Each structure stands twice: as C-alpha cells, then as structure tokens.
TrEMBL record:
Organism: Nocardioides currus
Name of the protein this chain belongs to: ATP-dependent DNA ligase
Gene Ontology molecular functions: ligase activity
Classification via Gene3D superfamilies: DNA primase, PRIM domain
Occurrences of domain DNA ligase D polymerase (ranges): 31-302
Family matches, as NCBIfam families: ligD_pol (TIGR02778)
Keyword Zinc-finger: no
Length: 304
C-alpha cells in the first residue's frame, strides 16, 4: 500500500483514502484531509439534499489552481455498493469519462450515505450538483419536486443587489402560493428554491420560473434581466430560470465550491437576506468553517 494511502471504515464500508496532505485550496492552504473532514462533519444536513438525486461532480484532482472537469457518469472503479441510476440524457452529455454511458442514457451515482459521499470527495469532487428531480427506488426519474431560480449578478452588481432582487422574487413566488428558501451560491450570487407539487414536468417548472423572471425584468429593467445574453447583464441581476430544465443541475446546498477560497453554498434566513439588501456588507459568502459553526448553532436553515 502506498505510504500516502490509508484504509478507513465508513459505516461498514472499507475505503482507501489518499493524499490527505494535498493542498486543494492553495490560497488558504486547505488540504484534502480538511475537505474530507468538512464533508463528513456536514453530512447530516447535506445528505438529505442529495438523497435520491443523480449527482454531477466537478473534480479538481490537482487543486483549484489547476484544471477541473465535469463528471456525470460513474467512473471506472466505482464500488459495487454505490447506488446508481441510469437515466435519459435529456440533452445532456457524458463527461470525459466514458464509463457508465450507453447511447442516450447516463449512469449517475446516487449519494445517499456517508460512505458514498466520502468516496466521491476522495476523488477530489469538490462540487456536487444535482437536478431538481429525484429518482424512484428503481432509479426511474420522477417529476421535479422543486423550482430553483439562480440570481447571478453582472459586475459591478454583487451579492448586495442579489439580496434586493431576491426579495422581489420571494414576493412574486408568494403571489403564486410558493414559499422559497434562500441559499448563497458560494460564488457570487443566491439561489432561491421553492417546493412544488409533482404535477408539473421540468418544462412546466421551467416555464413558471421564466414567467417570474420576465415579470420582474419588465417591472424593474434597470436591475433585473431574464436574458441569457451576457452582454446585457452588467450591473444587473440575471434571473436564470433555465436550471429547471430536466438536464440541468444546480450546486447542492452545503457543497463546497472550487473557488480560490473554500466557500460553500449556504442556506440563509430571510432576515440575513434583508440585511444584505440594506447593507452592501450585510451578507457575504461563507467559508466551510463558518458553515460548520452555523450548522452546530442552527441546524439546517434550509428547513427552518
């Protein structure tokens, strides 16, 4: 066994963990061991957000200063005990790994337990992205159970402007009898989630999110845009309604981001969003140490 590899028991599964001292975030010196510890520590609130959802990973084998790649299919060497689901591509494409693909389908891992989570993170999968739909026990895709709107600021707009627009989105969704939850993206903006009944397909939730985005663009064109064209985004908050497409994914709450610092997609309260709307420094993106403290103090604010 290589000197940089150890065997660990995770909930009855034996895993080989390697390169614990490898620095994955050079700016902060954050190591792979610290990343594994974060995911293990936060798993109690993270796993419910991953459960029954196909997981697309972004991997940084040599740290965030080096290249990354998307991976949808299960990679070669996937343990036999990892739960998987083979689903239609619905317009998506496999990652550079060809394992697990079969024509117009993709075979995703389903991350329902700590052993699977640890296995994925050991592969330097810093980011975990999921669809807005789940799969059945048999692996068949269900209709979406939630709607998401991604608030993406165009410079010089930032999180402050996203918070201001988030309040408008909250009100627009409330008019449609939908209650939403705010999550900082861990990057620049905010994600707003609303639970929906499963009577709509992905086209239906996409249309609803687009309707809200275009309504707010019409009422406040100086601050809001629903247009994909990046040239029309500077100084505005883009309401990305397209992530409700059946083939698209959004960073999971409590997932790390592959940025220069180990920031996390973090559920926040509406009081925090309102503070961010009033004060440019009222809300900032959270680092993983802060997230662990928040979870210890408040539990999962997504369900608060």
């Amino acid at each position: 066994m290589p000197t940089n590899e150890i065997q660990v028991d995770v909930e009855g599964r034996t895993l080989k963990i390697s390169n614990l001292d490898k620095v994955l975030y050079p700016r902060t010196g954050t190591t792979k061991g610290e990343v594994l510890n974060y995911y293990a520590s936060v798993s109690g609130v993270l796993l419910p957000h991953l459960r029954d959802r196909a997981v697309t990973r972004i991997r940084w084998p040599h740290g965030v200063q080096a290249g990354s790649f998307f991976e949808k299919n299960t990679p070669a060497g996937t343990p036999s005990w990892v739960r998987t689901a083979t689903v239609p591509t619905t317009g998506s494409r496999a990652s550079r790994s060809g394992a697990g693909s079969d024509g117009d389908t993709l075979t995703f891992p389903i991350c329902d337990d700590l052993a699977t989570l640890t296995w994925l993170v050991n592969l330097a999968a810093l980011e975990l992205h999921v669809h807005q739909w789940q799969v059945t026990k048999a692996g068949k895709p269900r209709k979406p159970d939630r709607l998401v709107i991604d608030l993406d600021p165009g410079e010089p707009a930032g999180l402050h402007e996203c918070c201001q627009v988030a309040l408008k989105v909250r009100d627009a969704l409330a008019e449609r009898d939908l209650t939403c939850t705010a999550v900082t993206s861990g990057s620049k903006g905010l994600h707003l989630y609303a639970a929906v009944s499963r009577h709509r397909d992905s086209d239906g939730t996409t249309a609803l999110a687009k309707e809200v985005a275009e309504e707010l663009q019409k009422s406040d064109p100086g601050m809001v845009t629903a247009t994909m064209t990046k040239a029309k985004r500077p100084g505005k908050v883009f309401l990305d309604w397209s992530q409700n497409s059946g083939s698209k994914t959004t960073i999971s709450p409590y997932s790390l981001r592959g940025r220069d610092r180990p920031t996390v997609a973090t559920p926040v309260t509406w009081d925090e969003v309102e503070a961010g709307a009033e004060d440019p420094l009222g809300l900032e993106q959270f680092r993983f140490e802060e997230v662990l403290e928040r979870v210890q103090d408040h539990g999962d604010l997504f369900d608060a």
